[in-house]
Structure formats: structure tokens, C-alpha cells
Amino acid sequence: MAAAALASHLVVHHHRLSSFSAASARDRVLHHRRRSSSLPLSAAPCPQHGRPRGARALRRAAAGGGGGSGSSETLPYVYSLEELYRSCTTWTWRGMRVNYLVRGEGPPMLLVHGFGASVGHWRRNIGVLSESYTVYAIDLIGFGASEKPPGFSYTMETWAQLILDFLDEVVKRPTVLVGNSVGSLACVIAAAESSRDFVRGLVLLNCSGGMNNKAIVDDWRIKLLLPLLWLIDFLLKQRRIASSLFERVKDRNNLKNILLSVYGNKDSVDDELVEIIRGPADGEGALDAFVSTVTGPPGPSPIALMPAVRAPVLVLWGDQDPFTPIDGPVGKYFSALPGELPNVTLHMLEGVGHCPHDDRPDLVHGKLLPWLDSLPAAAAAEPTSRAPAPAA
User: Which residue intervals define the domain AB hydrolase-1 in the entry (predicted)?
Assistant: First the structure.
């Protein structure tokens, strides 16, 4: 089993997280609910409106240019997982169940998680954003509580089509897309393929270069590891080896170590975050989704797609990201993009890792909220419905 041990180590470093079911995670978290954290998980909604206290104060501070959390009034409200999961509902897409949440009133935005994450990963953002916006958060097919159909081939293009259909069938208004990691790339694909009226704006939080690291062939680090990545693909096609690797990747201690390596703010890596990601990886289809995502085609490059995006774009980049480092090909491209495309705004976030919205939500809100305020008003008319997409 020496090869399996080597592959296990490589899988952990090959991609941030595995694809898990939030349905069982919900049961575990509700039973072993953890309310203590470095951030105020116990904040209460306002009794009059069910809105979180302090969100408006944070928004005022952010609009004034401050991103810090210097007082308790400006700390972001954090929804408990129980509250978030209780608010979720389902939408049927191509005969498959898709889990999503909607909170708040105002112009819509859609939050799209990264690899292995789910709706719960936005728990530190939904309270603040939903005070002035209608916030949708979705579990992509293969992740969270959304369906993981047997034999399904996961691709970036499929997730992008899911996003476009969700906007068309559920939101039905021009929407700001906010994505992290592979969720960012799915949003880029969707925005590049959509009309300007359909996607009102695009927010990218450490956008990935592909569904897996095989996409970044121009990075010398990936070139060095490419033979090992292909070895992982080979090993994962062996069911017994894949199952063994999956068990190692979803181990609680391994996951916590992975998260600590990709978060700049180590205090944000608490037990609740581990449960959001780990959840119950025993859910049906979770292993197949993990293997398909790690071994599948990386998908189109954001470098080729960004010139086709006409909507305003905000890029927020954690400078301590080991997966899409700022000195890598994708990081370098996005750091130079504002000088090439007038619709792009970039902010580097110092001391922040791969998941800025959860790593340092105060910094993200401090840049995001003023940018949202600056967007042109959305057209009153609903976007024109598109022709039905071909079946998967």
C-alpha cells in the first residue's frame, strides 16, 4: 500500500477539499452544534424583522472605506448552520435536486462555493449581504445537499449551465454572481456566455484556473508535479484505492490541516468549518463526485474567457493562497487585468488565503459593499428566457 499512501498525500495537496453531502453534515452539526468561535456565532436576529443586529453598521463602515472590525457593532453577523440549513429549499434541474437558500430583499446576488464546500461556507457573509440584497446561495450538483447522480461526469461547463438556468428559472432578475475558487470559474464561464443584462456584475474570490490543477500547465510547480497528478488519476480509477484515499482525505484531522494550510487567518479554522466541509462524506455518490472532479477535464481557462465578460468585475485576491498563488500564471493574469480591461477592479487582501469570504469576511465586505453600491441600476425588465439547454 505504499503507492496508496503516496497518492493519499498527493490528493490532499492536489486539491483543497473533497465533495461531500451536507445532508448528513446537517444532522451532525445540529446534534453537536458548536456556538463558540473567533467570530460572533451567537449573534441574534432583530426580533422585529428577523434581521441581524450590526449588519447595517458594518455596511456603513465598509462604505466609508473601513474594512476592519474595531468594535462589536461592526462585526459581521454569522448565521448558525441550523438557521441556514432550515432555510434551504430545493429546485429541480434536469431531473436532479439542487439545494439552495434565499435570504433578504433587494437586488439579487448568487453565492457560488468552491470545491468541496456548500451553502454553509457563506455563513459569515449572508447576514451582512442580505440586509440590502436578496442573497441566493446554491449547492452545485455533486456538492453539499444537492444530488450526486451515479455515473455523472462533472465539468466546469455543466456547473456554469446550472448557474445560468438557476438565474433564468429561479431568480429571474439581473444578478451579481459571487464565486470562490472553482465557483469563481463557473461564474466566469456563465458570465462569458450570458448577455450583459443577465449577469449584472461578477465578483471573483481567488478564481481557480480549472476544475483541477492539471489546467495550470504554465506554472513550473504544476509541471514538476504533473506526472504525480496523472498517477493520482490512475490510482483513483481503481475503486478500492479510491475508497481508501477518500477515507484519508475526509479524515477530520487531515481536513483541518488542509484548511489551516490554505487560510491566512488560522482562527477562522474552527470545528464548525471542518464539519461544513467534512459533513458526512458517506453520502451516496460522494466518492464518485470526488473522483470525477479530481480526474476530470480541467475545463476552459479564465484567461481565455475574461475578455468576453462585459459586466463590471470585482476581483478580490488573498495573497497567501497556496493553490492559486499571486505569482502563478492565473494570479499574475488577474493582478494585471485592471490595466487591460476597464470593467475590472482588483483588491489584494494581505494575509488572506484561498477562501477570503470565510478567512477574513471583514476585509471582503469592506471592498464588496462599496463596489455593489457603485453598480448601475439593473434594468426593470426581466431577462429574456433562453432556449432549454440540451440534456446532460
Answer: 107-361
